[in-house]
Automatic annotation (TrEMBL), chain A:
GO terms for biological process: intracellular iron ion homeostasis; iron ion transport. Its EC number is 1.16.3.2. Keywords: Cytoplasm, Iron, Iron storage, Metal-binding, Oxidoreductase. This is Ferritin. Residues 9-154 form the Ferritin-like diiron domain. It comes from Pedobacter planticolens. Fe cation binds at E26, E59, H62, E103, Q136. Belongs to the ferritin family. Prokaryotic subfamily. It is found in: Cytoplasm. It catalyses: 4 Fe(2+) + O2 + 6 H2O = 4 iron(III) oxide-hydroxide + 12 H(+). May alleviate iron toxicity in the presence of oxygen. It comes from the Bacteria. GO terms for molecular function: ferric iron binding; ferrous iron binding; identical protein binding; oxidoreductase activity. CDD domains: Nonheme_Ferritin.
TrEMBL record, chain B:
The lineage of its organism: Bacteria, Pseudomonadati, Bacteroidota, Sphingobacteriia, Sphingobacteriales. It comes from the Bacteria. This is Uncharacterized protein.
Amino acid sequence: MKDIIRIKCLLSSDVETLINQQIKKEAHSSAIYLSMASWCNRHGYDFSSDYFFKQAEEERAHQLKFYKYILDMGGTAISPEVTNIKIEYNSFREVFEEALDQEINITQSIKSIAARCTKEQDYITLEFLNWFFREQREEEYKARRALELFDVIGEEGTGKWQIDKHVGQIAYNSEA
Amino acid sequence: MQQTTTISSITFTEVFSIKDGAIYQSDSEGCWYIDFAGKLARFDYRNLLKLKKAVYQIDIEDKLLNNGPSADVEIIFICACDHCYVLSLLQIIKLKELLQGSFVMLELNHIIFDRLHRIAS
């Protein structure tokens, strides 16, 4: 009897489901960043708004990368529904706190896919995920550094203006 | 598992069977035939997975405990598939059992294939 399932698709149904869930998370994340960009723009934080627009695009790119991977491997990629996107934030700081939270959630979620791949000996997907781990290192670094600006500069006086100006300059240059 | 049946020039291999139905695989067509609820229906790879998902998603316990006036009938309709099942609760339980058994057998077949043909050769 032929092994038809394996012939048709490289991914196991569990890994495929997990990656589809990840696609949804990336889409959600991209939408949240757009919402943050909107909030920052409305409140006069232009540099932060640009920063979040860029982040939204990056998350969208991640989503497509996962999406195409599933299709390339013979699976069924599911275009996700994105709902429950927050519109208002209580403070400038809260926006960045949530941005970091967002990145941590994404990292943890990719780690759990990798754990499943290790269990199933799906080294191909594991290798594919490596790119995302490098990317998450950068994303978390940027989000953490942005939040740290609030402690380093302080929010009093022209503090928020200074923070906004510096957010756009955060870059991750590690060669490691 | 390797019991082979020929029905009108198509060769089937039985994947798994229960008293009320069976799933056969056709190697030449690369698909499966489900003999259940009085009909023989052809499912390709994607539709079989969609059927599995649709059946597994039914909350049987909830239906058993539900005292509402609605009938215990579930319509399983799969997008882009020619077949549709209208099943009673007991039939759903049986179909689920049939699918679960079949997927275990397909997984076993995958492992055997790997060990005997792919890794050994």
